[in-house]
Every structure is written in structure tokens, then in C-alpha cells.
UniProtKB/TrEMBL annotation:
Protein family: Belongs to the OMP decarboxylase family. Type 2 subfamily.
SMART domains assigned to the protein according to its UniProt record, in alphabetical order: OMPdecase (SM00934)
Biological classification of the source: Bacteria, Bacillati, Bacillota, Clostridia, Eubacteriales
BP GO annotations: 'de novo' pyrimidine nucleobase biosynthetic process; 'de novo' UMP biosynthetic process
UniProt pathway annotation: Pyrimidine metabolism; UMP biosynthesis via de novo pathway; UMP from orotate: step 2/2
InterPro entries: Aldolase_TIM, OMPdecase_AS, OMPdecase_type-2, OMPdeCOase_dom, RibuloseP-bd_barrel
One GO MF term: orotidine-5'-phosphate decarboxylase activity
Name under which the protein is recorded: Orotidine 5'-phosphate decarboxylase
Residues of the active site: K106
Species assigned in the record: Massiliimalia timonensis
EC number: 4.1.1.23
Amino acid sequence: MSMDRLITKILETGNPTVAGLDPKLSYVPGFIREESVKKYGKTLEAAADALLTFNKALIDELCDIVPAVKPQCAYYEMYGWQGVKALYETMAYAREKGMYVITDGKRNDIGTTMEAYAIGHLGETDVFGETQYGFLGDCLTVNGYLGTDGIAPLLKVCEACDKGIFVLVKTSNPSSGELQDRMIGGQKVYEVMGGMCETWGAEQIGKYGYSSVGAVVGATYPEQLRELREKMPHTFFLVPGYGAQGGGAKDVSYAFDQNGLGAIVNSSRGIMCAYQKEGCDERDFAKAARREAIRMKEDITSVIPKIAWNK
């Protein structure tokens, strides 16, 4: 099962973190940008080339110590079809290097449209009677606030193609409480959504006790993380908000179970732009990202139970 593969990678690396690959041109070192412009001029193709070169170098330095990458679709779509091609090639390269790929697309629709999203991002597309994968993600972030109509098409693809999803439950942004903290009967909206995740994943639980339906729960709300971990024993968490958004190791610690499992913590700018924060030579950007990834791993693992699988 897809989530089992992610957890196995976490156990192999001893690292419950994911590197978010959300590149802007301003994050890419100048020498890479200049080389791309020399090849393609000041075009979308040059921008996409720079992003891909940047990503590949990061993946090369991270693949043996970080179990997964999480490219955010919007950062590629802003550079047109050329950027989307760079997204595909980034996914392919990460998979080639043995990394688990979480596509951060936050897709949300119903019926045949959601089926198309599910097939395009996770499943196999029928092409003149033959099937091919459109994109190469192992998992997709989705918005569940259209209810079961928006999730059911994904569950079919997850089961058929060994893939997973992460459903938005309690997001890390400051205004999330405007909706997610409102009451439905005696429960807050995010609690209801968490319960729905448990229900949606009940038929697809893997060997580590977690289902193919994960949840996005932000590090910026540690008490809610603690609460939801208790209420959602079969739901694996994707935890944004560490680092640049203000979440710390103690905050994210509440997402983990007694085996040091149950969650994977994201860092995007913190890793990608580590060279800028360090003030080191820009040509050392990938090594700086590796140093930051190791620091992050050590920071988080220092406050959670030892990562081990105890049946």
C-alpha cells in the first residue's frame, strides 16, 4: 500500500520529514538562471529549465537522507506548460532516486471531474486502448470539503493503483479557524473532517496500521495536532508549518505515535533556500540544503519516540 511505502522509507532513513520543492526563480541561484537564459533566452522554457536544474541538484543531495519530496503544482503551473513539464521531470527524477513523491495539488471537485483529477495525478490514463501514467506522484493532497462525492473517485484509484491521498483537515494558515474551528453540533468542523478521513480510509489500512487516506494538519496548531492524533489512530499526517511558518519541533511532536511514526513534516523554503540563510557561496546551495535537512531531522527526532516498528 502507498502509505506503507512512505512509512518504510521513513524507517529506512530514520527521518520523518519531506522536502517541499516549491521553487520560484528568486530561490534559484543566479548562475543557474544565467545558464538557462543563455540556452533559451528570457522565456518560460528558460524558467522551467532553471527550476528543473535546481530541483535535480537538491534531489541528488537529499535522496539518501530524506524519504520524500513534495512538489507544489502552483509553482510550476505559473511557468505555463513548460513549468508543468518541469514538474513531471522533477517527479520522474525523484522516483528514479528512490524517493516517495507527494503531489501538492489540493484538488477538489466531484463526479467525472474528480475522476479525471484522480486518474491524471494518481492513476493510469486510457490512451487509445492502452494505459499510461500521466503524472508520477505516489500521493496527492486534496480538499475534502465537498464531502464524499469529492473523495470516492480517489479511493477507487488509490486501491487500484496503490496510491494515497492527504485530505486538508486543520490547515496551518492563520485564517483556517474562520471555517475549520466553527461548530457542527458538538464538534468543530476540523474534527468532523478528521472523522470522515478515518471512515474513508477504513477499507484500505496497511501493515503499519495507517490507511491510504492521510490528513493535512498544521504544525502551527499543536493542541489540535495532539487532539487529532488521539482521535485519528489510522490516519497518517502530513504536517506543514514547520520553520518558516513558525512551527517548531515540540509543536510537531504531537503528530507522532509511540513508534515515532504517524506523521511526516514538511519544510520547503527552509531547505531550498538554506544557502541564502547561511550566506554561503550560491554554488554550495545543494550542500546547504542537505545540511538543513540533517539539522531538521535531528531537531524533530530529538523530541519524538525513537523511530522503530514494533508490531
